[in-house]
User: What shape does this take?
Amino acid sequence: MRYFLHLAYSGSNYRGWQVQKNVVSIQEIIQKNLSQVFKKPIFVVGCGRTDAEVHASQYFLHFEIKDSWDFDLVFRLNKMLPNDIAIFDIFPVENECHARFGAIKRTYDYYIHTYKDPFLRNISTLYTENKLDTLKMVQAVKLLEKYTDFAAFCLTPDAHSTTVCTISSASLFVNEENDRIRFQISSNRFLRGMIRIIVGKLFQIGSGLLSIEEFEKLLITKITPSKFDVAPPQGLFLSEIKYPFLDIPPRSSFALNQNTKWIKI
Assistant: This one.
């Protein structure tokens, strides 16, 4: 029987989602605890990979097990897992339902603050070098929906079968005090490093180091630069996953969105 597991995690203490040698990953922790509960090896398939220190306020995985259980698995896992990983729901699905390949839309949010705040340091990126021109940044953001090939915004384009992504929406928000910024983007898929590369370019545009024309030229030519200015990982959140067979709103409520009125530019 295949099961979907709905969860969220803070990525600060992990080297990303995927199991890797000699480092701690989200996938490894969850597999270890599921295997301990069922006293047999359990392998999980995630809806996508997140890099080291990147967070997920909504995430789905699937696993298979023949045995049924007569206890509250959500409660048991939450007691066993560290406090930076939370399980919300576990439910059976059809065997063809796939956490990764079945997803039709993924949404990411990237958070920026322009003043030093010790309570935001692990969940938002501090930028104080220059006053960011958000109007120019939003001009660049609006261009993203007009193009489909993002080879110029991928760390390893040759590792992908295609660099085409369908961006369904891309927006920039500011808070009422105009000292925090939120970039949100939704697509059917993302390339390695794509969002953090885009945010790095937005920083350059906002600080006057890159023009809108130069940004659009990258989208037109699709030429991968020899060097990238990649934005730091801690501001990035995988925030929503959509499936044709499943539509569950995010459960996690975190400090970045509490008591904050975000205004779309």
The mean pLDDT is 93. Residues 200 and 231 are 5 Å apart (CA to CA). The domain at 2-93 is CATH 3.30.70.580 (Alpha-Beta Plaits).
